[in-house]
Amino acid sequence: MKQIILAKRYAKAIFSLGKEQKKVEAYAKALNAIAGLFKDEKLGLEDALVNPMYPLEARHKVMAKVAKSAKADKTMTTFLDLLVEKKRVDVLPEIAAAVQEMLDSEENISHGSVTSAIKLDKALLGKIQATLEKITGNKVILETQVDPSIIGGIVAKVGDLVLDGSIRTQLNGLKESIKGRE
What is the pLDDT of residues 114-170, one digit of tens each? Predict the structure, then answer.
């Protein structure tokens, strides 16, 4: 929990700087690219930047190369160096997620998921997306999942909104209704 609060503070700072310089999208893109590199265990980037066994100067050099590969400007590079200096590089993926969340919120974009028993075609998915956009008032970006255990129908989630039209849920409701009558 402490890490998330810390990440949100750093995210708020870089987001504010990005807004001032009109580079929020570029900063979000750079942070997401670096977070993607961070997650790739084959690269060993996280270890190289977080492990205290490596000298601070070496970690700064690694971060400088990472910043260059992510096409980060001077402000973003300074921000990344600050994370190294303060030994906060381990929260970089959370910072990237928080900045993206702030950017999406500012642009009225919501992320959601649709779970169905079978793969949905693009036309039906488009109708579901349009309906969810109408309900939420935001542009909705959907991820799809297939889960045969819901038997049929769909379960759509956007933020706190959950629309469960699955046959499994309807059968469970029927089962509870019958149990209540006994």
Answer: 999 999 999 999 999 999 999 999 999 999 999 999 999 999 999 999 999 999 999
> Where does the chain have alpha helices with state H?
2-21, 24-39, 45-50, 56-69, 74-85, 92-106, 122-136, 167-181
pTM for the structure as a whole: 0.79
Q: Retrieve residue 119's tokens.
A: 């793969």
- How many Å apart are CA 51 and CA 108, to the nearest integer? 38
Q: Where in the chain is the domain with CATH 1.10.520.20?
A: 2-105
Q: Is 177's pLDDT higher than 80?
A: yes
User: What separation in angstroms does the CA of 117 have from each of 143, 151, 153?
Assistant: 14, 6, 7
Q: How far apart are CA 124 and CA 140, in angstroms?
A: 15
For residue 179, the tally of other CB atoms under 10 A from its CB is 8
Give the contacts of 98 (CB within 8 A, at least 6 positions apart). 7, 8, 10, 11, 12
Return the pLDDT at 1.
67
The CATH code of the domain at 2-105 is 1.10.520.20
Euclidean distance between CA atoms 15 and 24, whole angstroms: 6
